[in-house]
């Protein structure tokens, strides 16, 4: 098993300064958020004081939430968190949290992926002042339940339309993200 694959305290970044500079330019990361490359052997956890890690590869791939948002907008609907929760659950994957498609429910995407591979070794630090003040950091020893109770209500008609109009999850070009109102600037 690769070092850091399942353990935050062993996960280090292999991102180079050149790759970071390109990423900052491509994604228009504000320089006043003080993007910083981790030192060669610096693990992601514990977090640097006043900083949070941003994984570059997650931004390079249209993940569940981006795909879901664009699918909603393609149907001329606003993204609906309850419908998203119907399709996906928040799970722990060793030291990380992620979304997984709920078992036994039809998917809004045509080729569901089990995970985004090799994403944990490309991160850098940003000032945490851009995060919501009330954001709670969770760790694997915290208990959480994201089960849908019997009283869970969601727009079944909208969920059905997403299933009927499945689309594959894949990297999306910037102009499609702009059209889908997922990004708001053109390169």
Describe this structure in words.
- With 187 residues, the chain is α+β, with helices and mostly antiparallel strands.
- Helices cover 25% and strands 12% of the residues.
- The protein contains 6 helices and 4 strands.
- The chain has helices at 17-26, 56-59, 64-74, 81-87, 156-164, 174-179; strands at 51-55, 88-93, 96-101, 123-127.
- The strands form 2 sheets. Strands 1-4 form a two-stranded antiparallel ribbon. Strands 2-3 form a two-stranded antiparallel sheet.
- A hairpin with a 2-residue loop joins strand 2 (88-93) and strand 3.
- The longest helix has 11 residues, at 64-74.
- It is globular.
- It starts with 16 loop residues before the first helix and ends in an 8-residue tail after the last helix.
- The relative contact order is 0.21.
- The model has no long low-confidence stretch (mean pLDDT 78).
């Amino acid at each position: 098993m690769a070092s850091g694959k399942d353990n935050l305290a062993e996960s280090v970044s292999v991102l180079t300064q050149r790759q970071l500079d390109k990423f900052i330019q491509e994604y228009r990361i504000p320089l006043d958020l003080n993007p910083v490359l981790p030192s060669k052997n610096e693990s992601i956890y514990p977090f640097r004081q006043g900083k949070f890690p941003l994984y570059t590869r997650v931004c390079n791939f249209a993940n569940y939430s981006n795909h879901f948002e664009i699918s909603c907008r393609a149907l001329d609907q606003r993204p609906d968190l309850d419908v998203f929760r119907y399709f996906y659950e928040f799970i722990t994957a060793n030291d990380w949290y992620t979304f997984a498609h709920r078992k036994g429910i039809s998917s809004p995407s045509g080729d569901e992926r089990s995970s985004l591979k090799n994403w944990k070794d490309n991160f850098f630090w940003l000032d945490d002042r851009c995060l919501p003040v009330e954001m709670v950091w969770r760790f694997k020893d915290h208990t959480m339940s994201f089960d849908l109770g019997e009283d869970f209500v969601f727009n079944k008609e909208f969920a059905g339309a997403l299933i009927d109009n499945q689309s594959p999850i894949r990297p999306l070009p910037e102009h499609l993200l702009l059209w889908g109102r997922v990004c708001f600037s053109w390169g």
